[in-house]
Task: inverse folding
């Protein structure tokens, strides 16, 4: 996917020869021209990446080791893969005793007395719960996660094996950052595909993804979430590419491989299946079933081929394709169903908790963001949603525009492919959110981060809402205000809540 | 083949206002035509070689940029905020002191000097990158939005993924 190179090449042709230095000389003016020739939205993206990488480097050392989501369990998984050359098993594998000192950051390794030497020497194996029954504790509960992330990190683990687990975690966190950077890149490329000439969206969408505090937190911890988010973002980009240019066999194959890798990263990626189907069907038209069926078979076939070893393993080990019944059994001492699907869907507490998790609740729901701050964030969010509805009323479809065409500079007059691409973003976020609602019907630990694979879709929709509400002449100030507000939000959250929690004496 | 021809013609046609209507679920499969691609590169070339067309900041934008920049700097250097080390525990501290405290309590996972250097570089990247983002966002004020309703072919190169049918 090359948008950058052709631009520079074509730009060279358009520049009068007098302004270009003689071939082979690297004059200052030539360098200056080269820099100036870079489209301004790419300049913004480069600046954003510089800030993002700096932020992620800070993130990876700011949080004490093992305080990220399930880092103890993921580290243990990685250790099993790297040292025993096998995948851990639910119900059989335990978390290493040496990690009992981090028992607060595991699921129910109780009683938890990390400072007690006797407990540390002989961590509890079972515990009596409120219902009077005895349940195993300190078990490996992340074993039903697919293995790709741990395979990728195995060389890094072995390289740092002589370090303490805490030191290893810092190093392994840093290796997760590129997946976060890829997610931001795909946000940028996706919006450039749908609205190639709209600077507002090209600037604000990747900025939202880069500065979303929880998504960037995910990208600086030892956890497979961000790998799935990155692959999911790639799939969204490929789907938009297909809607714009048609799903060729090669593209369908690429989507299949991406989906297979996403499925090998985290099972959350299964929500991409209906989205891919919708994209292909609307792209070819419902009646051209031979085309979309053929491309769908290519995609599904390759995705199955890539992910089959994992699902065969799951079936042979657990008798199902998720391991979730076994996980439910492990958590039976304290897990509670959240209620029926529709009860959760319209449950205000459920929505409020997801909202809190979207912006705060860093590290095992320890760091709570003040309700005032959450309300302040909610106001522009609601405004953006109102803008989205206004966009629905304002946008029109120009059916004379063929696939790949778009009206120069307008986000309100859409070619049919653009309308479907925007619609796909809405469907993507809807499916992702409904999936966490569904998960909540079985598991009390459903969380907002499970819909983060759809963060690029959410970002595009929200920024489209702002784009609709901000008058044309204020777009420059508007996009700068949104970027500034996102930076300020991060500065406040880290200064007021995160750093004091971990690094100030109580 | 018919579809391709029709779409090739569509690329050359000006937009017709009568063609505007609500979303329709089905549109046909087409391949971007060569003419569309050449228009695309032309459009991108125009954007690429004319970055200064919108790179002149209005006085209002300069004022806004200065306000944001000075505001951030003042906030970091001078502001006192109520920090929350734990729930229901509040303390007033200068923003700079909070970050200085973090700098002085970095984890002991590498040589302290090296770690502090990495920390400092990261902070510089955040500050420079963030301020650059704000100013570039101001520079990128898009005054061309909605202005012309001429057809625009794909502005990005179809790339390696899209070739066959």
Result:
């Amino acid at each position: 996917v090359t948008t950058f190179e052709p631009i520079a090449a074509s730009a060279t042709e358009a520049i009068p020869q007098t302004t270009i230095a003689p071939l082979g000389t690297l004059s200052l003016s030539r360098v200056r021209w080269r820099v100036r020739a870079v489209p301004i939205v790419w300049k913004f993206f480069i600046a954003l990446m510089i800030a993002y990488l700096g932020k992620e480097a800070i993130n990876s050392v700011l949080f004490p080791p093992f305080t990220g989501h399930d880092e103890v369990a993921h580290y243990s998984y990685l250790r099993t893969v790297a040292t025993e050359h096998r995948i851990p098993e639910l119900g059989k594998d335990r978390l290493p005793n040496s990690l009992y000192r981090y028992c607060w950051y595991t699921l129910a390794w109780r009683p938890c007395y990390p400072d007690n030497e006797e407990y540390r020497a002989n961590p509890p194996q079972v515990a009596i719960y409120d219902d009077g029954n005895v349940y195993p504790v300190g078990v490996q509960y992340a074993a039903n996660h697919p293995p790709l992330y741990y395979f990728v990190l195995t060389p890094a683990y072995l390289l740092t094996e002589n370090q303490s687990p805490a030191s290893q975690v810092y190093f392994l966190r840093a290796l997760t950052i590129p997946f976060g950077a890829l997610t931001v890149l795909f946000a940028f490329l996706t919006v450039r595909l749908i609205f190639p000439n709209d600077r507002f969206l090209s600037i604000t969408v990747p900025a939202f993804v880069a500065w979303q505090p929880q998504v960037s937190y995910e990208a600086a911890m030892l956890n497979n979430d961000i790998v799935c988010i990155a692959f999911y973002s790639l799939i969204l980009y490929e789907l938009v590419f297909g809607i714009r240019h048609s799903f060729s066999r090669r593209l369908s194959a690429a989507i299949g491989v991406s989906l297979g890798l996403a499925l090998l990263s985290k099972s959350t990626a299964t929500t991409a299946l209906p989205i891919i189907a919708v994209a292909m069907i609307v792209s070819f038209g419902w009646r051209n079933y031979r085309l979309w069926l053929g491309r769908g078979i290519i995609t599904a076939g390759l995705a199955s081929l890539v992910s089959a070893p994992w699902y065969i393993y799951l079936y042979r080990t657990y008798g199902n394709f998720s391991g979730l019944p076994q996980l439910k059994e492990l958590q039976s001492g304290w897990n509670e169903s959240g209620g029926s699907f529709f009860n959760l869907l319209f449950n205000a507490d459920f929505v409020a908790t997801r909202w809190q998790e979207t912006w705060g609740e860093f590290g095992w729901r320890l760091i709570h963001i003040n309700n005032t701050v959450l309300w302040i964030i909610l106001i522009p969010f609601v405004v953006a949603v109102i803008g989205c509805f206004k966009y629905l009323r304002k946008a029109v479809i120009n059916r004379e525009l063929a696939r790949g065409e778009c009206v120069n500079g307008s986000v309100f007059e859409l070619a049919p492919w653009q309308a479907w691409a925007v619609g796909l973003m809405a469907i993507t976020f809807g499916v992702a959110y409904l999936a966490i609602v569904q998960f909540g019907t079985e598991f009390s630990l459903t969380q907002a981060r499970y819909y983060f694979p759809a963060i690029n879709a959410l970002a595009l929709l929200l920024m489209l809402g702002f784009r609709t509400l901000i008058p044309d002449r204020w777009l420059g100030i508007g996009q700068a205000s949104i970027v500034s507000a996102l930076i300020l939000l991060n500065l406040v959250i880290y200064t007021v809540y995160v750093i004091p929690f971990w690094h100030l004496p109580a | 083949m018919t579809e391709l021809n029709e779409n090739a013609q569509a690329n050359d046609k000006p937009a017709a206002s009568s063609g505007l209507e609500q979303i329709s679920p089905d549109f046909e499969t087409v391949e971007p035509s060569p003419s569309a691609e050449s228009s695309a590169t032309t459009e991108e070339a125009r954007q690429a070689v004319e970055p200064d067309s919108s790179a002149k900041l209005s006085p209002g934008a300069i004022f806004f940029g200065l306000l944001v920049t000075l505001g951030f700097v003042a906030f970091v250097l001078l502001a006192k905020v109520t920090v929350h080390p734990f729930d229901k525990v509040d303390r007033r501290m200068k923003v700079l002191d909070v970050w200085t405290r973090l700098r002085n309590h970095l984890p002991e996972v590498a040589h302290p000097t090296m770690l502090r250097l990495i920390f400092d570089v990261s902070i510089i990247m955040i500050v420079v990158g963030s301020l650059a983002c704000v100013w570039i966002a101001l520079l990128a004020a898009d005054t061309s939005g909605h202005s012309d309703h001429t057809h625009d072919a794909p502005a990005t190169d179809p790339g390696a993924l899209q070739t066959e049918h």
User: Anything to note?
Assistant: The CA atoms of residues 201 and 222 of chain A lie 31 Å apart. Confidence is low (pLDDT under 50) at residues 1-21 of chain A.
